[in-house]
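Support request, please re-run this one:
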Amino acid sequence: MDDRGQLTERQRKVLQLLGEGRVMKEVAAILNMSTRTVAFDKYRIMGALGARTNAELVRHAVRLRMVV
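Re-run finished. Output below.
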């Protein structure tokens, strides 16, 4: 199953931006949300994908072809 199906549209966008190397503050500004919301989404994404570190999160974004 494609792991992207487990994520909401907003979570997919957050994952894409984090995978591109953006920090949470940048992601928040781009998506017009608070950094706390980005942090919560990141936490939920990590749980859904089974990632334990930022590096694993980026690896998932690359594997899912979310990073250009």
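The chain has four helices and no strands. The two ends are 22 Å apart (CA to CA).
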